[in-house]
Design goal:
Length: 316
């Protein structure tokens, strides 16, 4: 298979890709065309179908399609100029070729996260985490989920990778500042994005669900924690109202600012630390993914809206 991250300008492509997005648009001259985003496990690429002829068979978004195309460059980004499309048969492709995956072992990452959970001394918080991660359905969804539709950690294992990184950052900070409730901070770090298992659909779709569009992962996660604590209390486990409120506050405030989607701004030191750790890992991963984009070989990578700067590769 010809993977997207190996594309070179000028070469001809004839292979199967997952159609992640499909939009019909009109040129200034009034001519219809398709604008697509095609995906495999190495990344995604914009594709344009300028001639809607008989060579373009019917297909829909989320189909696997065989395309014949030429690799071109536009604004220093590679894209495909597609001349032929047909819908692929199920026996023509292997699903794992089309799902971007974490470079780290999910088994090893989950083992490390479990070790951190074992180190929590607050029995109520440990019971909460064991209840979540002892649920096979939840664990399977969490381990295989992405952390985002795009921007950062948008790959299989991305949610686990991001959660582990944020948790380790929080653990380091807590060890340096005794005023922080370490167990509360670590638990909130592990739980901060659990709502994403319901906010974003499984691969290969990896798009927002109805619940994701209507509520978002922050509210969904807070609701999941509230419901789980209710179950623990019904099972006879003591979980104080104060601790529940503090944990849910950390979840609700973990984006740091109202304009970034947090229903509340951080009012606890643990919530402040969590929001900074979450932002830190998300931005480092975003920058990493930009630097690893093989479609741009320039030293200067252009203006990036997320970082509000013309960003450059490190040369030293």
């Amino acid at each position: 298979m010809k993977y997207i991250n190996t594309f070179l300008e000028g070469e001809q492509i004839s292979d199967i890709y997952y159609c992640k997005q499909k939009t019909q648009a009109t040129t200034k001259a009034g001519k219809s065309y398709y604008s697509l985003i095609l995906q495999d496990k190495t990344g995604s690429v914009d594709a344009k179908v300028w001639e809607l002829s008989n060579a373009i068979e019917h297909f829909e978004v989320h189909d696997f399609i065989r395309v014949e195309a030429r690799v071109t460059s536009f604004n220093n980004q590679l894209q495909l100029n597609v001349s032929r499309i047909r819908r692929a048969e199920v026996n023509e492709y292997v699903l794992s070729d089309y799902m971007p995956c974490s470079e780290f072992s999910t088994d090893e990452m989950m083992h490390e996260l479990n070790k951190i959970i074992e180190g929590i001394t607050n029995e109520s918080l440990k019971a909460l985490l064991n209840s979540f991660f002892g649920d096979k359905a939840f664990l399977n969804a969490f381990v295989n989920h992405s952390a985002a539709k795009s921007i950062h950690h948008g790959f299989v294992g991305g949610l686990l990778q991001h959660t582990l990184a944020v948790t380790k950052i929080c653990r380091f900070i807590a060890s340096s500042y005794p005023i922080i409730n370490k167990d509360l901070l670590i638990t909130s770090a592990i739980c901060h994005d659990i709502g994403k298992v319901e906010e974003i659909a499984d691969f290969p779709v990896n798009d927002y669900t109805d619940a994701g569009n209507l509520m978002g992962h922050i509210v969904i996660g807070a609701m999941m924690i509230r419901d789980k604590i209710r179950e623990l209390r019904e099972a006879g486990i003591d979980f104080s109202d104060v601790l529940e409120g503090e944990l849910i506050h950390c979840i609700l405030a973990h984006h740091g600012e109202l304009e970034y989607g947090s229903p509340k701004k951080p009012a606890l030191i643990e919530a402040v630390v969590l929001s900074m750790a979450d932002n830190m890992d998300a931005k480092i991963e975003s920058f990493t993914e930009i630097l690893n984009d093989t479609g741009n070989s320039s030293e200067w990578l252009g203006f990036n809206r997320q970082f509000e700067a013309n960003i450059r590769k490190t040369l030293s």
